Amino acid sequence: MRILVLGSGGREHAIGWKLKKDYKEAEFFFAPGNAGTEKLGLNLSINPNDPYEVASVCSELKIDLVFPGPENPLSYGVKDILEKEGKMCFGPSQSAAQLEASKSFAKKIMEEARIPTAPFKIYTLDDFKSGKLNPEKIKTPIVIKASGLCAGKGTFVCKASTDVQTALEKIFIKREFGDQGNEIIVEEFLEGEEISYFALCSNNEFRFIGFARDYKRLMDNDQGPNTGGMGAYTPVEYGTEELRNKIEKYIVSPLMEELHRRKILYTGILYIGIMIHKNTPYVLEFNVRLGDPEAQVILPCIKDNFADIVIQASEGKLPQRINSEGSALCIVMASQGYPDKYKKGVEIKIKGEEESDEFIIFHAGTKRDNGKIVSSGGRVLNVVGLGKTKYEAKLNAYNKIKDINFEGAHFRKDIGS
Ligand code: AMP
Ligand code: GLY
Question: For residue 71, which ligand has an atom nearest its CA?
Answer without folding.
Answer: 2
